[in-house]
Amino acid sequence: MPRPSGASQPYRSSACRIGTHDACAEATKRFSSPAGLVTYEACACPCHLNSTSGKR
Q1: Cα 38 to Cα 5: distance, rounded to the nearest angstrom
Q2: Residue 40 belongs to what domain range?
Q3: Strands (E), the chain
């Protein structure tokens, strides 16, 4: 069943979407500045769930 438009999906990096999981460097949330004005989402690919280093 298709998702309704406007429904948010967990973020997955480009590397994980094309299957190059070892190249994904977005497994942890990070901030762009000390003030934390911009937050980059962490990749929610299941390949990161069983890893201690954040990479597969």
Answers
A1: 25
A2: 14-48
A3: 30-31, 39-40
The domain total for the chain is: 1
Write down the H helix ranges in 1-56: 14-17
Q: Looking at the domain assignment, is residue 4 inside a domain?
A: no
Among 41, 38, 39, CA closest to 26: 41
- Residue 38: its pLDDT value, please? 80
pLDDT in tens, 13-56: 999 999 999 999 898 888 777 776 788 889 999 998 765 544 44
pTM over 0.70: no
Distance (Å, rounded) from C-alpha 17 to C-alpha 32? 23
Measured CA to CA, the distance from residue 24 to residue 4 in angstroms comes to: 28
